[in-house]
Specification:
alpha/beta, globular, binds nicotinamide-adenine-dinucleotide
């Protein structure tokens, strides 16, 4: 049985980690979150210690260590811009780290973490759960088995409606989340580079508070992408059906079915990590480079190979109304 600590225990994604720790027959010794709405822990580890102050959490972990309860893993579910520091906390305390996406916001942040991995002999694993989704694995196999010179046409559309709260939370703050493409897109950019290889061109057509669109050319694909958190951008069929999320991926104009199979992916990720087969820092690099470039590229407007949804009418920022 491995000993875990969890950082960011009160948030949306933390229960998937609590569940995965339990399901893999491990235990949670302690958790930390500045917000104390953490009753969910009773469903999983009611005996775990919980702290709302970093200093007390840090002191407790140190005490546990001195009492011989070495931490094996620190799981990180905190806001994106804090991952870098929280990963260091785990490594410096002699634990391996399991961190939510994106591992860090900027490619160069990874260099320091690689160095610290070497110094401590511990590893950092990133949750990149789409790589464990059966439909995505099947898609990769299809591409791998196609003639090497085949360049695919691929369209990615992902609309995950979010309310006004998004703009108040850290998620709506580009310095903290990295913005739309980083926060909700990084999974898909990781998946694309995993399947289609190195990036040859990365153009941004549109980058607003609520949506982003661009064109990516990989070794094996030309990709038009559109990401949005604005329900107004949902296709009419989804609106009529009362849906708030829309995911579509087409390869050569053919829809790839991947609506199911998302629920168990954190458990799968933990099982792989514990079996010594998780995604390490070097595997997170390509997607972090892609989103960093998107964040720092001036949009060129609707010219060239842009996604058809990029044409949809723009909406004002809810808190910047004139
Ligand atoms: N793999 C996925 O599918 C997936 C889905 C959603 C979110 N995420 C990632 O998980 C992480 C958390 O996202 P979320 O949606 O749960 O966000 P959230 O805002 O619901 O939760 C974040 C938690 O971190 C806590 N926090 C804030 N400052 C902190 C600090 N200084 N130290 C420790 N904790 C702090 C907050 O109180 C909150 O409970 C993000 O990195 C996000 O990108 C991954």
């Amino acid at each position: 049985m491995k000993n875990f600590a969890l950082i960011g225990a009160s948030g949306y994604i933390a229960p998937r980690h609590l569940q995965a720790i339990k399901e893999t027959n491990n235990t949670l010794l302690a958790a930390y979150d500045p917000f104390d709405g953490v009753g969910i822990m009773d469903n999983y580890f009611p005996r775990a210690d919980f702290f709302t102050e970093y200093e007390r959490f840090e002191r407790h972990i140190d005490k546990l260590k001195r009492l011989g309860h070495q931490l094996d893993y620190v799981s990180i579910c905190s806001p994106n811009y804090l991952h870098d520091s929280h990963i260091r906390f785990g490594l410096k305390n002699g634990a391996n780290v399991i961190c939510e996406k994106p591992l860090v916001l900027n490619p160069w942040n990874l260099e320091g973490l690689v160095q610290l991995e070497k110094e401590t002999g511990k590893h950092v694993y990133n949750i990149l759960q789409l790589r464990l989704h059966e439909s995505i694995i099947a898609l990769k196999e299809k591409v791998d088995n196609a003639p090497r010179d085949k360049i695919f046409d691929f369209d990615l559309t992902y609309i995950a409606s979010r309310g006004k709260w998004y703009y108040t939370s850290w998620k709506g703050n580009e310095q903290k989340s990295g913005g739309i493409a980083t926060n909700i897109g990084v999974h898909f950019f990781d998946m694309l580079s995993w399947i289609f290889g190195d990036v040859k061109e990365n153009l941004v057509h549109l980058h607003e508070h609520d949506r982003a669109a661009g064109y990516l050319e990989f070794e094996r694909a030309k990709v038009r992408w559109f990401l949005s958190i604005n329900a107004e951008t949902l296709p009419e069929s989804a609106k009529k059906a009362g849906k708030t999320t829309y995911r579509s991926m087409t390869l050569e104009g053919e829809e790839i079915e991947f609506s199911a199979g998302f629920t168990d992916l954190h458990n799968k990720s933990y099982k792989a990590i514990l079996a010594g087969d998780g995604f390490r820092i070097s595997e997170a690099l390509n997607a972090i480079k892609i989103v960093h470039k998107i964040r720092n590229t001036k949009p060129i407007g609707l010219v060239g190979e842009y996604h058809p949804y990029a044409n949809k009418p723009l909406s004002p920022h809810p808190f910047h109304l004139k």
